[in-house]
Design goal:
Strand order of the largest sheet: 1-2-3-6-7
CATH topology: Aminopeptidase
Oligomer: single chain
Helix content: 25-40%
Low-confidence stretches: none
Strand content: 25-35%
CATH class: Alpha Beta
Shape: globular
CATH architecture: 3-Layer(aba) Sandwich
Number of domains: 1
Radius of gyration: 16 Å
CATH superfamily: Gcn5-related N-acetyltransferase (GNAT)
Distance between the termini: 45 Å
Number of helices: 4
Mean pLDDT: 94
Order of helices and strands: EHHEEEEEHEH
């Protein structure tokens, strides 16, 4: 397995993995708010590529036997100073991390995360943020195992029956 930088020839592989990730999230959402529309992978791909372009981002791919089996997208957020919050340095943000179901538990996600962390360090980022869907216990455990900590948490309660 090797980690490579994104090239346009891998666009369909990335789109298919984005769709696989959304299917995974949809399946675990007890509120059924997350959906998978027919044009999802095209729209999220365009959105993610714009984020990369506009925020000094990177897209790294995991390639195994000439197949793309995972990827990570990261962007850099600029310093922020507000009335109640101050961050005087760049912050890395992982937007997407997916390893195809067929190749999970082989350390590929860890390798992708390490590659992105190296990039963020080279760009003088001192912090990395990653949003994880609350019901994604596998994802949360993966990040905790890799040295991440819960800093913020959104709690939710559905008050209307379907």
């Amino acid at each position: 397995m090797k980690i490579i930088e994104y090239e346009d020839k891998y666009a369909n592989d990335v789109k298919n993995l984005l769709e696989e990730l959304q299917e995974y999230i949809v399946a675990m959402d007890p509120y059924h708010f997350n959906i998978l529309k027919e044009d999802y992978k095209e729209k999220i791909f365009i959105k993610d590529m714009e984020e990369i372009k506009n925020n000094k981002g990177k897209l790294y791919l995991a390639q195994e036997e000439n197949q793309i089996v995972g990827f990570i997208i990261g962007v850099i957020r600029e310093p922020v100073i507000e009335f109640d919050y101050e961050r005087l340095n760049n912050m890395g943000e992982v937007l997407e991390l997916i390893v195809t179901k067929k190749t999970r538990s082989k350390g590929i996600g860890h390798e992708l995360l390490q590659k992105m962390e190296e990039y963020f360090k080279s760009q003088n980022c001192h912090t990395i943020n990653i949003d994880v869907f609350g019901y994604n216990e596998i994802g949360k455990n993966f990040y905790l195992k890799n040295g991440y900590h819960t800093r913020m948490m959104t709690v939710s309660k559905k008050i209307e029956d379907d």
